[in-house]
Structures are given as C-alpha cells and as structure tokens.
Design brief:
Blueprint: E1 2-8, H1 13-17, H2 31-43, E2 49-55, H3 58-68, E3 77-80, H4 103-110, H5 117-121, H6 126-143, E4 149-154, H7 156-166, H8 171-174, E5 185-190, E6 196-203
Parallel strand pairs: 1-4, 2-3, 2-4
Antiparallel strand pairs: 1-5, 5-6
Helix pairs in contact: 2-3, 6-7
C-alpha cells in the first residue's frame, strides 16, 4: 500500500488578506505558520517516508522545511513544478472581494467543469488542472516502490481537486465537499493507482497541542 501524506502549506499574508493566491504568486508565511508546520513534523515524526516532495512555490517549500526539521534524520525535499497551485491568471494576487459578486466568480466556484478560465482571466481550466495533479501523483507512484510513504507539501486546490477526482468526485462537487485548512494532513492510499481510499482528510487536531 502506497500512502500519500498531503499537507497544505501554512497560512500566508495573502490568505489573511483574502487574496487569490494561485500558481503565479507567493506570499510570506505568518510566524504562527512556522510553528504549526513544526507541529505537523512532530505529528508525522514516526512515519518512515521514502521521499519528501514540495510544490516549488516558496510558501509550500518553506512549510516543508519546517516539517522535516522535526524528523530524526535529514530528508531532502524534491521540488515539483507540476504540483504548484491552480493558476488564477489575471486574478492572482487580487482581493477576492473585488470579484466575489461577479457571474464569472460564481461560475468558477459552482460550475468549474464548464468555466472557461482561459477566456475569463487567462488562467487554467479545471479539467486540465485536476489532470495535472493526478499525473503528478501517478508519476510519483510508479517511481516509488510499493508499500512506501510519500510526503507532499502543496496547496489547497491542487490537493483537493487531485484527491477528490481520483476518488471519482465530479469537478463541480469538489468545492461542495469542502477544501483544506492550512497545515492540515490528508492521507490517500492505493495499491495500484486505480482504486483509492481516503483514511484521513483535512486533519488538524495536532495543532491544538
């Protein structure tokens, strides 16, 4: 059984300001996020990871560094260009409140399957986005021996849309099932990259310690 441990990065300045924070922008982690990332590391300290990956974006990589700092043995972090966050195009870095009442925003949230992101803001269509995430996990799965644990630190949308569509959830239902909290842990399991189970979703209880 291969287990993917998927962790969302810590809260950033853009998260606090409620800005779009996709694949083309970055923002500094809050001080409390560094503390919480170390709590993730303490929670996962007894898991034997074959490899550790991170989105190449700074907020994810810095979170990953704090996590592995808690491990008893040093772990190299492999950066993934293909697992960066969803590309909001022209909206990236803008305040969500500027767009939240528009028809385009409402379709993006409620009907991503038919939303033309390329036309609306020169962004990434959701079907292509979810496939990018699935292809990345599939590549890691076949490069890693079976019965191994893999840690990946990334972003809310890329983890949510990748995991849920692998489980057979339709694009329009992913957000309705809820997205991920900062520094949360999700575990996806598979033996063959055909059938999947989700024993852990958006777990954050360890942050209370």
């Amino acid at each position: 059984m291969t287990k993917f441990y998927l962790v969302r990065h810590g809260m950033t300045e853009y998260n606090l300001q409620n800005r779009f924070q996709g694949g083309t922008v970055d923002s500094a982690l809050l001080a409390e996020s560094l503390v919480n990332a170390r709590k993730v590391g303490q929670y996962l300290v007894d898991v034997d990871f074959a490899k550790v990956y991170s989105s190449q974006q700074k907020r994810a990589y810095c979170t990953a560094k704090e996590i592995v700092s808690q491990f008893s043995e040093p772990q190299p972090i492999h950066k993934l260009a293909s697992f960066v966050e969803y590309n909001f195009g022209d909206w990236d870095g803008k305040l969500v409140d500027e767009y939240i009442n528009t028809a385009e925003f409402k379709q993006m949230v409620h009907d991503p399957e038919h939303f033309d992101a390329v036309k609306v803001y020169h962004g990434e269509n959701y079907a292509d986005f979810a496939k990018r995430g699935r292809d990345t996990l599939e590549k890691i799965f076949f490069e890693t021996r079976k019965n191994q644990n893999v840690l990946i630190v990334a972003h809310s949308l890329i983890i949510s849309f990748t995991v849920k569509t692998l489980l057979g959830v339709e694009l329009n239902q992913v957000r309705k099932q809820g997205l991920l909290d900062n520094t949360s842990v999700t575990v996806l399991e598979t033996n063959d990259f055909v059938d999947f189970t989700l024993p852990v979703w958006n777990y954050t209880n360890f942050l209370k310690n």
